[in-house]
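During the second year of the project, the team shifted from modelling isolated chains to modelling whole assemblies. The rationale, set out in the original proposal, was that interfaces cannot be judged from single-chain predictions alone. As a representative example for this report, we include one of the complexes processed in the last quarter. Its constituent sequences, exactly as entered into the pipeline, are reproduced here:
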Amino acid sequence: MNIDHDYVIETRALSKRYGRKLALDNLDLRIPRGRIHAIVGANGAGKSTLFRILMGFMPQTAGEARILGKDSQELTPADRSRIGFVNEEHTLPNWMRVAQVMAMQKHQYPRWNQRAFDGVIGHYHVLPEQKVGQLSRGERAGFNLALALAQGPELLVLDEPTLGLDVVAKRAFLESLLYSNAADDCTVIYCSHQMEEIERVADNLIILERGQLKNMSAPEEFTARVSHWVADVPFKGPELHTVPGLLEVQRLDGLHHYLVLDQDDGFERFLREAGARNVQSMPVSLDRAVNAFLAKNHAAPAAA
Amino acid sequence: MIDLFKGELLRFRLWAAAAAIINVAVLGFLSRMVDMAQQPLFVYQVFAAVYAVAGILLGLYQMGSYRKPNHWLNLLHRPLHRLRIAGALTGAGSLLLLVAVALPIVLVALYQDTMTARVVDMRHWLLPVAAWLIAVSGYLAGAYAMVGNRRYSFAAFLLPNLFMYAQASGMAMLGVQLVAIAFLAAMLAIAFKPDPAAPSRNPAAVLTIALPVQLGAYFLVWMLGYGMEIVWTATGTHPLNAPQPPKGGYIEADRAEGKDMLLLGIENSRDPDAALWREQVALSDVYTRYPLRNLPHTGEMTNLQPMEFTDGDRNITWVFSHDRMRFVGYGALDKRARGELGVDEAQAAGSSAEFPAPTMPFAADYLYNAHAAYQYDDGQGRFYERIRLPQGEVMASPPEPAGDNILVLSDRAAYFYPGREAANGLDVLQPLMRVPMSGQVGNLSRMDVVELLDGYLISYTYTWGVWSGELQHPYQQVLRVDGKGQAREVARRGLSIDLPSLYTNRNTWLSPVLRAICLGAQDLFAAKDPLRAKPEPMPAPVLWLAGVCCLLSLLGAVWLSGKQAHSPRGRWAWVLLCGVVGLPALASLWLMVPRRETLPIAAPNAQPVAA
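Output from the structure prediction step:
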């Protein structure tokens, strides 16, 4: 495998098998240095498995995985100091005070950036003498982000960091991330189910499905690939298996709503040939596009 | 590292303080009631078990809280070597246990030493160290059980059990505990990595984990063997539960009254006097002795039983001090010091007054140690040596009356001393007769004696160790000793084992190597014990079965390892190990090495997607 240091994450034919299930299926992924990259996927798409392999906490069944140019199974403590990781549980020592945790991290990380820490923690009403266990979930998330950014990482992995946060806390978290200069200096991998967050922060959208890479592009490019067609088709409309690029179909108020992938004006002709009297096309939001994309191959009972 | 260490101290400081307070309160209360330095072994074992459980709980809880995937990642994903992180956590755990376990014992020992006249020897100052090491070993076992692969990490709990069977004492016992701790620490260090469930690729690390796993499998299968006894009991065929034990067997010999034992011994004797002996046995008192299994050792931390007695006339409690090798007295009522008492005539605190070995009371009349027996003269308040065993022999049964005379057993012979002189004088007694044993005292389960008109009829029964596979040929020997002390064998009969040999020797055919390791571990750092017998060689069928099991294990390893992820050298090393160690190694192979992960279809040569 050629080592290319322009990629912070690089996998080739990466596979992981749990019993009879493939969590990662021959995954080839290269994430370039810089910017904020969002990874989305339904539950079980392989995101957590991918992160665990990349961080060296799980061996792969086959293939190769590199993070910051290093084999993920051979990471040294120095390599780890270059990688920040924030998980959705914000696992921090509840029994310690905020100042104690900060002091501990400060001793451990040679590139500790106190300004970055202060910059992020300033978004929250967190006092140094407070015990971590007394912080609200939003404050814990902010504190965790402040610690991670202050480490001066080259790569920051945020694994569903806003899960379970209320609207205000989510906004505070995103703002503290976006307005931090420290975040500008590192590559951010942002894993989330919250499309409005991804729309706001991500420069690059990576979609995983059943352990395979399904998309890697700017979010707006992906949104442009998905179109919403409303057709007034008498009776039941065309057979679904004949609809090209179909992601989702609904019948509302006698009108057929089609969400399709990678279809141009030819799709209008298809609908008219199928008997549509009136056809309209409209753009879709990232949220709807991603949800439709992920729901397309969602498992269903065989009899359905 | 120091920050993590401090963080863990901070985390458990209140728990440790509470445990220390409870510990010191319990020990303090008990020490007000009794002398904690002079308790029987069982009391120390109870405290040791409590400390070990406390350590286990701490290890399970501490590591359990980190072992959840996100917590584990958060703990280990930092710019510290994994062993430094492990060191910080376990160092804090060990220090907390020191506070909770050892410090209270030190405080109570200080109280006894400085504020009471009780004896506190050097050996007692080792107790807090031993208690701490036991707690730490439990802690490390609990920590490994939680961190390691749950398929087999329970095996770590076996290692602290060694302390119950170890023959070492005093400082040597601390050495045994340190070895166990070093082993457990190595196991934890091997598992303490980002993916603790993954088997190590280092051969030494694999062996370090494999040995306790194999011992665990060995112990489990051995224990499951007791299921056979349940079946026999349920079907009413177990010899232990039969209304009448099997004729001519171990159980019959174990249960028989003294008279019956002698009668069984001479049942088939063709000696012309046999009929006369049977009549005499039926009419006379038969004296039965059961040999000691342990003797007190100098510097041992615990006591077989309290090494003290009270002179009721003077209201003085005399306690044997290992440091001074004399008895140290204190008032039974006022608890004030009453000086020291040695054994010889001088009664002074000179070296000549020392006892040759730790000495403890026996019954009402005597005190004994490994080499001699003594009497305390109430009138004079002095110790007198009454019985001195020949050089090289040790006490196996302290003096007790057997008819008109006094009977003493050494590890090699029975001695008869004149009862009248014993009762009327205070001099060292000379034996009337010496009756050598034909077997090892470690196998002697009982000795039965009947006094004849001119001598004795003596039965030695060797059955000790039959059901643990250490004695293969139990037998009873009957000797006729005439008035001049001349002994001749008049009967000898082999005894049956009552249970199938393959059952009693399953600890050998399951794995001769592991049995040897267990016996070696039991004797680690221990001085040779003359009261224990060396295990006898195994019968040929047992060895053949062991060989077959090793072969089956080897073939099983060839088949099983083919389905697992191994390097070629690693695979054949495992096969060899299974062939040498036997079935427990095959079990460890199955438990420790996961099946090879394979992909269902060949991966297409796809090009990576780039941004």
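Chain A touches chain B through 48 residues (CB under 8 Å). The mean pLDDT of chain A is 86.
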